[in-house]
User: What shape does this take?
Amino acid sequence: MFGLFKKGKHQRTYITDIHSHLLPGLDDGVKSMEESLEILTYFIELGTSRLYTTPHIMNDLYPNKEAHILSVANNLRKEITSKGLAIEVNVAAEYYLDEILLDRMDNDDNQLLTFGDNYLLFETSFFNLPFYLNEFIFKAKSQGYQPVLAHPERYAYIQDSYTLVEDIVQRGVLLQINTISLAGFYSKPVKKLAERLVNDGMVHFLGSDCHNINQFNALNEALKSKCYQKALDLPLKNYSL
Ligand SMILES: [Fe+2]
Assistant: This one.
């Protein structure tokens, strides 16, 4: 049953998480190795034995290089081993969609960091429909990536146009909503859109997007929400990781 969720009305075990910021010092996530290990301990208490952590790669704010991310992940794994924590931390990234990412996909020999079945997690501006979205989707698919849009429920341009998210899915993009959105962590409109996506079966992944202990606590609360329980009945791809 590794990585599988056992369903139950008050089940508190979390599924295999695919979105978090638990590598210290790389982005706006955890600040120290201690904080990272503390949060991983809480994930273990939720029954998690494996997760994927996904630092931001964003040109201006977090210009992380893949090799450095992998090296920090190795350091974290050494600490996990030395502390005897029973959790496997895998690493991918959350890519910000901009022209620089597209250029890299054209010119860079380095493979992008993906997880599972070459799933490529990406995020966009919170406000404006990305100018390069269709070009990115085409490029990603033609290069063998399976693009996964992080937290669509948080983007204003999708809140303003539900048909847009339907179109994005039709183009072959998978959707990952944040579990804490279902509990109203961000705002009522975000919660409403996340619930609509669950009700319409347009959720392919759930992710914690956990950046810190506060967000972990919110996750713990969100596991009680009815909509989270409903989301677990969808054929989430988390189950096959
Ligand atoms: Fe994130």
